[in-house]
Every structure is written in C-alpha cells, then in structure tokens.
Amino acid sequence: MYHHFCDFLNLYASQHVNSSGASMFSKNIHILVWESFAYESAFSDTFQAFTMHPIWNLNTFRGQVVCFNNIILPLLPRMIFGLYYNTPLIDGCENSGLFKAFSQHVLHRLNINQKPNDNGKIRITFLSRNTKYRNVLNENELISALKNHSQYEVKKVVYSGNFLTFKEQIQITYNTDIFIGMHGAGLTHLLFLPEWAVLFELYNCEDEHCYKDLARLRGVKYITWRDINKFTMQDKGHHPDQGAHAKFTNYSFDKDEFISLVEEASTHVKKYKHGYSPKLHDEF
User: Which of its termini does the chain have fewer beta carbons within 10 Å around, N or C?
Assistant: First the structure.
C-alpha cells in the first residue's frame, strides 16, 4: 500500500500543478498507466477518486497511432524527494496541507463517512498481519487486555482483499481513534485517520523514520515502542540476503507496557477529539 500511494499522492499533486479551474478535478478524464499490462491491485478502488472511466494501459492502443487533444503529464514519482519514507516539502514540515487535502479528497470521492460514536468509547483498531514475519505472537493476550478496559471499543482486523474491500478498510480506519499495528505497509492507512487520532506503530523494526515521518506530514499523533527490554524477538531474523534482520522475525510484547502506551494514546484522543463532529462531505 505504501508504494502504491506514492503514485496516488503524485497523481493528486499533478492535478494542482498542471490544471486550473473547476474542471481540474473532473472525473470525466482518462488515466493512462505507462505499462503494457492491466493495472490490478488491492487498491484499485482509489482510482474512483480520480476518474469514472476504466484505466488505460499501452495495450489499449497497441498498433495504433494516437493523438490526444489535451494531455497532462504527471510529476515524476518516487524521486529522492518524493513520497518515499518522507516528503520534505519544507524541512520539518508538520500537518501538511497537501497531505490533508489528499486524504479528504479520497475520502469524499469514495464516499467514506464518519459515524457518530454514541457510546463515548475510544475506538481501537488492531491491525493483525496475515504474513510470515512481523506477527505479534501474543496478539490475543494484548487484545484481551484492552477489552478488559471498559473505556475501549476494540476491533481486530486483517486488511486484505480476502477479508475486506479497500473501501471497507478505509471506512474502518476513518472511524478509528487509535490505530495499532506492526511496521508494515498497512500503516499507510494513517493517511485516512481522523484529525485527533493516534498511530501506535507497535514496533518500527529499526526503521524508525518511515511511518513516523508520514504521520508527521499527515498531522496525526505517532507513538511506538520505547523500551527494547520489554519485547521478545522470536529469533534474530533471517533476511534472504542480509542475514539477521529485525523485519524478518516475529515478536511478543509486555502486556503492561503495551497498556501503558495505549493509555498515553488515549489521553491524546480525549484531549483533542472534544468538539469534533461528523463532517458533511464537501468537494473543496
């Protein structure tokens, strides 16, 4: 997801640079992906925020001479200063208007709604991994500990097309107060957290800047595990080429320390959520 959204943010920014007027965000446009194969991914629903038409690729016009009446070439994606672990629009930039506008644009165009939280509980989404590595071995213990606190409403999810559509995933994220998960592309969902929310990257697996920087740019609170003596690695990790590696193993976490960090996140939510209410969609 992280790398796909490098391109979606690029597409959104390109609309600002290359066009003007009310038609600049029209969905009556065609998008041509410069590849010879069809675009297929778990995130293809996102294109519905940009176009009402099927996505073209080079095979769409194989063997033809094509002339375009009006064409926009996008900004170059994934450059050294692109959305790739960080985007230094201005050094140290926080709460970037570009990132916030991109988030709201996608939420609006995909018709993602924020639901009233009638019970007043803090909504926690625990992102479980359906992968070989970076699993939380005592995940059930941690979730049970959260459920013992009456102030929390806890949901465990697997963000995979086998379980939830991408729109369903974003709907859950947008109605989350504290989003918890191990280092991994699924944390890119922080782009669609509400303003007061907290991203709790359970452990950054020694890649400390990736989602910390993205949370900073989006303008949501970020916390991660601090005491390395209070988690256990299953083994030293086994990268196929680099040997021992923190991203290629699984983890167990101290329950009490986990609850303490969630309480820290909860304090932030309580402080900043007050006064917010579900917003009506507005294109701009």
Answer: C
Alpha-carbon dihedral 252, 253, 259, 262, rounded to 10 degrees: -90
**Interatomic CA distance for residues 179 and 199, integer angstroms:** 5
Structure tokens at 105: 């644009």
Q: Which residue shows structure tokens 């957290």?
A: 193
Q: Are residues 154 and 251 in the same domain?
A: yes
Q: Mean per-residue pLDDT for 174-195? A: 96
Using DSSP, state whether 27 is helix, strand or coil: coil
Q: Indicate the number of domains in the chain.
A: 2
Tokens encoding 1 = 């997801």
Residue 144 lies in a domain: yes
Verify that 59 and 152 share a domain, yes or no.
no
In this structure, are residues 245 and 207 in contact, taking their beta carbons and an 8 Å threshold?
A: no
Same domain? 138 vs 269:
yes
pLDDT in tens, 3-53: 788 888 888 888 887 666 667 888 998 999 888 888 888 899 999 999 999
- DSSP letter, residue 51: -
What residue numbers bound the domain in which 130 lies?
A: 122-273
DSSP result, 59-103: GGGTT-----SS--PPPPTT-TTSSBSB--SSTT--S-HHHHHHH
